[in-house]
């Protein structure tokens, strides 16, 4: 008699991870742009000076990214993520008490430490642990969930700032996100399938007459070889540039207001942009599974030219502005979807967490430079046009970097750098620990 197949716990992990990453990213990390104009107007701080806190946050992120991958693998993942949530929400709430720009410079530090774990490392690492099949779709769903959440929170935050003030909005968002995310972490998150006595979704397990498991093969390039390759350099630069492009989203609200739109319209526009993220995340995940990460990434960069042209030519048309931010959201989603997929496509899964963590330093470096640079460019010129031309150039450069990365992969394959490691649930402890560090 055929027994009914149970829902694999990987899907529970996906729901938990998607909600955790979506709420912390859309509710705390990427919503800061809405506060920039109200704060600079209220406190008399220059746009460039205030956006320097993004730079400090990125420096902190850069230092913690290599540590985060190791910490999340070594210690109880739920404890790590709950502590991270308290740091991120606490730092964000503290902004509401500040009267000097130094407050943002100081409290962005704990906020950024928590954000590294919750918005950048946990999602890709956990999903790659649990999904050997439908990995691209899982990452797409994760990013899309963030877009759906953002489409609700961005307009809500814009209205809250207009009606209750920016200080109270900081408190409300921090408290609300923490109150939802902490129970989600405790109830759903587990580091690896072995913690539930399971195989990853899609892992083929064949048993012989004695009931012994056929080993699962994990293949890829070792961390030591990957970090010295031209493919890694290209990937690092891709991360840097795609983050620099996506960073303009933090300036979209001030950009809207320079074109005589209200804070409420800016919040609505950014909410609609999040819907673009939903479509983009799902589309890129599915496309990557069908035509590969390389072709999908090139398509994304070409499409990214469209909103920049709209912002340069017809920024004062409300309808075209909405079209522009929607497509820009579509491109922004590629950061969360294509970054992890390009990493696994180029280097495999053997040392994925270490390689991704190191390459993701490019995300932080971009934040150090791009966000305040855009702010100072506006502060000096009174216009965002020069910023838009820079973003346009970056989109073109990224196309060449993607091509260069896969040329570098061919060299690694020719050098025999691609290796295979066999592990099973009952494998020798040394091999099992090397592949999936113990974590409850």
Automatic annotation (TrEMBL):
* Superkingdom of origin organism: Bacteria
Q: How does it sit in the membrane?
A: Multi-pass membrane protein
Q: Where are the transmembrane segments?
A: 12-37, 43-67, 79-98, 104-127, 139-157, 169-189, 232-253, 265-288, 295-314, 320-343, 355-375, 387-407
Q: Which residues form the Major facilitator superfamily (MFS) profile domain?
A: 13-411
State where it is primarily located. Answer: membrane
InterPro entries attached to this UniProt entry: MFS, MFS_dom, MFS_trans_sf, Proton-linked_MCT
| PROSITE patterns in the cross-refs | MFS
Where does the record place it? Cell membrane
Which of UniProt's keywords are assigned here? Membrane, Transmembrane, Transmembrane helix, Transport
Quote the Pfam families the UniProt record gives: MFS_1
- This chain belongs to the protein called MFS transporter
High-level lineage: Bacteria, Bacillati, Bacillota, Bacilli, Bacillales
